[in-house]
Design goal:
- The structure is a homodimer of 148-residue chains.
- Chain A has 148 residues and is mainly α.
- The first copy, chain A, has a single domain, classed as Winged helix-like DNA-binding domain superfamily/Winged helix DNA-binding domain (Arc Repressor Mutant, subunit A).
- In chain A, 48% of the residues lie in helices and 5% in strands.
- Chain A is built from seven helices and two strands; from the N terminus they run H-H-H-E-E-H-H-H-H.
- A two-stranded antiparallel ribbon of chain A has the order 1-2.
- In chain A, strand 1 and strand 2 form a beta hairpin.
- In chain A, helix 1 packs across helix 3.
- The longest helix of chain A has 16 residues.
- Chain B binds a DNA duplex (30 and 30 nucleotides) through helix 3.
Chain lengths: 148, 148
DNA sequence: TCCATTCAGGACCGAAATTGTACTATTTAG
DNA sequence: CTAAATAGTACAATTTCGGTCCTGAATGGA
C-alpha cells in the first residue's frame, strides 16, 4: 500500500504535539496523553527521534523532550528518515549494489528519479505546516508536482 | 524505508520488458528470462497485473501477455496501485475511519495532501519513460516538485 | 479427438519485519 | 538519598512478504 509504518505515523503526531506545547520540555508521559498513545510506544519513538537529532532530551526530574530546531526547520522527510532510514522506493535507490540485477536493469535510474521526487515532496512540508492544520487553507502547502 | 515491495519492483521491470518487445504476445517464461526472474514469481505478478487490466492475456499454445494500453498511457502509479492497492502514506489516507484517533488528529489532512503529491509524482512517469532509460537525459522526466 | 502448452486461481510455508511491551541502568532535582 | 524521568536493550506475538507448488481451464496443432 506504499505507506509509512505506524511508528512513523505516530512520530509525526507526537512531533506535532511537541511543536504545539511551546519550547518548555515535555515529558514522554505528557506527550503520550496528548497523542492518546501508550507511554512505551511514545517513549520508544522519542528515543529514535532524539538519536536522529530532531529532539533534545533532558533526563531526571522534570526532564523531557523539546524540539531541537524550530518547527519550520523540521520537515516530514526528516521525521520519516529518522524513523525508517533513507527514503528510497527500491532497494537499489538507497543502497547501490544490493540487487544483482543492476548491470542489466533499465528501470533503476528511473526509480532513483522517482524516489528523489518523493523526497522533495516530503521535504516540502514542515512541522509548522502540520501544526497549522487548516480545515481549508487557500494557498495550500506547496505540494504540487510540476505539470508537464 | 518507505519503499514499494519487491513484487512491485519486479512488476515494473516485467512491464518494461513487455513494452520493449512490441505488440506480439510474450509468454511468462520469455518474460522471466528477459527479466532474469523465476517463472513462478513472474507468473504471479502478471496475474495481478492482468486482473488490474494493465495487461491482457491469451491462454493456450502460443499464449502470453501484452500491454492492454500503449506504454504512454500506463503510469508507474498504475503499476503500484495494481500491486499494492490504493496509494496512501497512512492508514487513514486510504481508508477513513480505521484509526480511532481521527476526531482529534490534526495531521490527517496533511498526510492526505502528502499522499496526493506522491500519487502525482508516480502518475507523472509513464512506462514509455521507463523504457527510454537514458544513460543521461538532458530534459529529464518531469519529476521536479514545484519549488516554493 | 487427443495432447502439449500456457494462463487462472488458490493454497501453502518459511523468513522477515512490525508492534507493542518490559526490564535494568543512568542521570538529575530537591 | 530518593523519586522522577530518559537511555539502552531485549523479547514475544502478530502480521506481512516472498517464493513455490498444485489443480483446473482454455487454446492450437497433430
Amino acid at each position: 500500500m506504499l505507506r509509512v509504518s505506524k511508528l512513523t505515523d505516530y512520530a509525526t503526531v507526537v512531533m506535532t504535539c511537541l511543536a504545539m506545547t511551546g519550547a518548555e520540555v515535555t515529558s514522554a508521559q505528557q506527550l503520550a496523553d496528548a497523542a492518546r498513545l501508550e507511554l512505551p510506544t511514545v517513549s520508544k519513538l522519542l528515543k529514535q527521534l532524539a538519536h536522529a537529532g530532531l529532539v533534545t532530551s533532558r533526563r531526571g526530574v522534570n526532564g523531557g523532550y523539546c524540539l531541537a530546531r524550530p518547527a519550520e526547520a523540521i520537515s516530514v522527510a526528516d521525521i520519516v528518515t529518522a524513523m525508517e532510514g533513507p527514503i528510497g522506493m527500491t532497494e537499489c535507490s538507497a543502497h547501490a549494489g544490493a540487487c544483482g540485477h543492476e548491470p542489466h536493469c533499465g528501470v533503476r535510474v528511473n526509480w532513483q528519479r522517482i524516489s528523489q521526487a518523493i523526497r522533495s515532496a516530503l521535504q516540502g512540508v514542515s512541522l509548522a505546516d502540520m501544526v497549522a492544520t487548516p480545515p481549508r487553507r487557500p494557498a495550500g502547502i506547496p505540494l504540487r508536482v510540476a505539470s508537464h
